[in-house]
Write a structure and sequence with these properties.
The structure is a single chain. By secondary structure, this protein is mainly α. The protein starts with a helix and ends with a helix.
Length: 230
């Protein structure tokens, strides 16, 4: 029975913490030792819950920072879009005015104001592309961080359920150990009583009684014989 109890609680230990370096022998039959194991596991799970909460707090702060950066960047993109549109429109207006004035096409394209507007348009376009790449990256980062937060929240719920389960199992398992130990003690006491020894002792007593009865009968017979007239 002791071996079966040990195997049973080894299985519990494996299931709860998945470790290979288990305590062996009588340790897992000791209620206080098992209580200590459960308390260690509960303490570790509470620490993990706290770490997950801290991680969620840090992620939420990071998400908020990225959202602020995204808002600022989006405003900058909107402003650049307007400036680019204005530069494009101004370049078209200058070119149209020069053409109406009879300026040759090659001179239109070389006109300082036209060149300035076209250059500004190109600069705005280049900056917009870079900022849009940054916007897309921030949006991906925020989405991924939100997914991580939800994942951590789910893990916290799992750990909290595990913690409640461990609390319930702790009392049940310790009660089972105590009951098993008491049953083992009873079995040990019962196994110490030899039915064969009792039978031999009983037979010896019965034989002694029988012999005494026979001796008593014989003595009585002899006494009765002496009393008969000769």
């Amino acid at each position: 029975m002791a071996n079966s109890i040990t195997r049973y609680f080894k299985g519990i230990w494996y299931a709860l913490i998945g470790r290979a370096n288990l305590p062996t022998g009588k340790l897992l039959e000791n209620p206080e030792a098992v209580r200590g194991i459960y308390e260690d596991i509960s303490r570790a799970k509470r620490a993990n819950i706290q770490r997950y909460k801290q991680a969620i707090g840090q992620l939420m702060a990071l998400v908020e920072q990225k959202r602020l950066s995204l808002k600022k960047l989006t405003d900058e993109v909107d402003d650049l879009e307007k400036k680019k549109a204005n530069a494009t429109q101004k370049a078209k207006t200058i070119a149209a005015e020069l053409r109406e004035a009879g300026t040759p096409e090659e001179e239109v394209e070389q006109h300082p104001e036209y060149i300035r507007c076209v250059s500004a348009n190109d600069d705005f376009d280049y900056t917009l592309k870079r900022k849009n790449v940054r916007v897309a990256k921030l949006e991906r980062d925020i989405k991924r961080a939100q997914e991580d937060i939800e994942c951590h929240k789910a893990q916290i719920l799992d750990l909290q359920r595990d913690l409640e389960k461990i609390k319930t199992e702790q009392s049940e398992v310790i009660e089972d150990i105590i009951t098993a130990r008491e049953q083992e003690e009873i079995d040990d006491m019962l196994s110490g009583i030899s039915k064969n020894d009792d039978s031999v002792e009983l037979a010896r007593i019965q034989e002694e009684i029988r012999q005494k009865v026979v001796e008593g009968v014989n003595e009585q017979s002899e006494t009765d014989g002496d009393k008969k007239p000769k």
